[in-house]
From TrEMBL:
It is found in: Membrane. Belongs to the cation diffusion facilitator (CDF) transporter (TC 2.A.4) family. SLC30A subfamily. It comes from the Bacteria. Its main location: membrane. It comes from Geotoga petraea. Keywords: Ion transport, Membrane, Transmembrane, Transmembrane helix, Transport. This is Cobalt-zinc-cadmium efflux system protein. It is a multi-pass membrane protein.
Length: 300
């Protein structure tokens, strides 16, 4: 049995415009801290749990964005002897931590909402309204800053979900404040808290599922290994493909490992075969990191 290993490492990665993204993260932290301070003060004065909940959530968002910023810096470090894949997975770990914190915040809000539902108190609707309007404006600006990058990066996606949940909560608080001002419907405060928390939990669990799949080296959802096997086995010199593994380190770069059995017993075109297989992997499946083991009988 003759075995030939090949590694194709195409370094034309899907990089962000890093400096621009880092600037966006910086301004996002600044905006969120400003909103947090305003909502904490406004929440205590107005006696609004929804506003205090949103302030707590915003504080968590600021920490999430800060973690994202630090993780991005670390992930840019070059691979070394100890970290042969580099540091890109640091961003995935940061996304995991962000999401776990978000779930914890949502759980706290639900328990506080239950207490508020059983023991409602008078709320200053006018102050609640103005503070939530400021919060909404800040959240919308932050969401716009991060929207594009969140589509290509799981860490930034986790941060973007933080911001979107805050935006939703700000809208609901504005609606609640209007009803409280006009009809004294104080019960809306804990009810809206429940709705906001439910949204947070729903989005967070979906993201946790996606992140966990990456951390356990699971196959990316949009990759069909049977299709890969089928495409490679169409080649005239390939008998079968087995031991197929496809994974990602950061949700962007894809890695392939597989054994390819050749039809002929003795063949010297191995390099050209590997190049052709790599071309299929890259052009049809966007896989630019591959380890291919060619298997054939020993030549006599």
């Amino acid at each position: 049995m003759f075995q030939n290993n090949s590694h194709n490492h195409d370094h034309e990665h899907h990089h962000d415009t890093s400096s621009m993204t880092d600037k966006k993260l910086f301004w996002s932290v600044f905006l969120n801290l400003t909103i947090t301070a305003a909502e904490f003060i406004g929440g205590f004065i107005s006696n609004s749990l929804a506003l205090l909940s949103d302030a707590t959530h915003n504080l968590n968002d600021s920490m999430a964005i800060l973690i994202s910023y630090i993780a991005r810096k670390i992930s840019k470090k070059q691979k070394d002897e100890k970290r042969t894949y580099g540091y890109k997975r640091v961003e995935i770990l940061a996304a995991f931590l962000n999401t776990v914190f978000l779930i914890a915040i949502a759980a706290i809000l639900i328990f506080e909402g239950i207490d508020k539902l059983m023991n409602p108190g008078e709320i200053n609707g006018q102050l609640m309204l103005w503070v939530s309007v400021v919060g909404l404006a800040g959240n919308l600006i932050t969401a716009i800053l991060l929207f594009r990058d969140s589509k290509e990066n799981l860490n930034l996606k986790a941060t973007f979900i933080h911001i979107m949940s805050d935006t939703l909560s700000s809208v609901m608080i504005i609606v609640g404040a209007i009803f409280i001002m006009n009809y004294n419907w104080y019960i809306l405060d804990p009810i809206f808290t429940f709705v906001i928390s439910t949204y947070i939990l729903f989005e967070s669990f979906n993201l946790i599922k996606e992140i966990s799949n990456i951390l356990v080296q699971g196959k990316p959802a949009d990759i069909d290994t049977f299709k890969i096997k089928e495409e490679i086995e169409k080649l005239s010199y390939v008998e079968n493909v087995h031991h197929i593994h496809v994974w990602t380190t950061d949700g962007i770069d894809l890695y392939f490992e597989g054994h390819v059995s050749l039809v002929q017993e003795c063949d010297y075109k191995l390099d050209s075969y590997i190049k052709e297989i790599n071309k299929i992997l890259e052009e049809k499946f966007s896989i630019n990191h591959s380890t291919i083991q060619l298997e054939q009988k020993l030549c006599e």
